[in-house]
Amino acid sequence: MFGRHAASGLSCPSFYCDTCGKRIKDVGMAGVSWDWLKPKGVKTSGYKKRDYPNLKVWHKGKCDPKQPLWEELWLFIIQICYNSNILKKTKNGFTIKVPAHIRE
Ligand SMILES: [Zn+2]
Question: Which residues surround ligand 1, an ion (CB under 5 A)?
Answer without folding.
Answer: 17, 19-20, 59, 63
